[in-house]
Structure prediction request, 352 residues.
Amino acid sequence: MAVTFFQSQTPGSKTKWDLREILESDIQWVTDIDFSAGQLTFKLVEVDEGYTPKNGDNIWFNWDHDHVFKGKVFKVDYDESEVFSVTAYDSLRYFKNQDSLVLPVSTISQRFTRVAKLAGVKHKVVNNSTHKLVAEVADSKSYFDMLKASFKATRLATGHRYFLRDNYGTVELRRAPYKKLTNIIGDQSQLTGFSFSKSIDDTVNVVRVVRTDKKKKQQTSSTAKTKAKKQTAAQKKAADVANTKLTTVTAAGGSVERWGKLQVVEKAKDKANAAQMKQKAKDILKSKNKQAYTLKLTTMANLNVVAGNEAMVKVKSLKDIGLGSKYLLITKATHTFTGTTDTAEIEMKVRI
Prediction:
């Protein structure tokens, strides 16, 4: 295996540069399932009358004759060693663009198609969703944030997790897991190291949903208004406080005794009733009243070991602490291409 194609071209120029001739470092490629652009980083030696990387340059990278990355340069560093450090992103970078949109009742497939067109990127719906989402106004939000809320609502309603992936210049809407890999990552195959952690830093086991209401003011006569003294800022604030009523609904989980009270407060909609507030509290509690598990593996890899695919993990030491052999979703993968070797550090979604 080797870098079989690594090329750059400045828009508007006919000259194409073979970057393999001036490559100074390993090439690192990152994919992430959680609304982040694919990233390629590398270093190039500065050569007199040679290629000087510029922001906006197009980059193509193939490994062992397979397409890996297509994108643009977004950052160039240069130092006393006369080496360029280059960072390029794929087309998902343009989903960081902000906009204000009225989103009608529609599916994530329809919303994805709309924002991809607005972002000006080539796109494709690989896995369609038929779940209808409620209409909403997305004001001054990035396309990533607009889709993040829609993806979350679809997942809560259907149980299906969708994600975005740039496939060599085409941004695709996919459902996870996109592929279930046949290779095993474990003690006897590919694995070179791992770390496993569990945390309750972001856990919530008590949820209070609060609705703020303003008491109805009594009518006053015009005579009383005329005689009323002008209020100071402090008096106005005190009157506003006295005129405010808080209605609270609380849901608590069974982990309070074990972990202590870990509470958040969420605002209810203005006209939400007690039943709706209670349901909101239960929904938040269900999603947040649990430990967060993080599994990181270092492994010999291939190009299918990317965010959004599933791989079988079989590690005896992990089995001893309760994580038996099972398929796990890859949420982030960082590949390092060195000479003829492809290694990857991967993060995986774990549920116990």
Remarks:
- The mean pLDDT is 92.
- The chain has four domains: 3-89, 94-176, 180-200+291-330+338-349, 204-215+242-289.
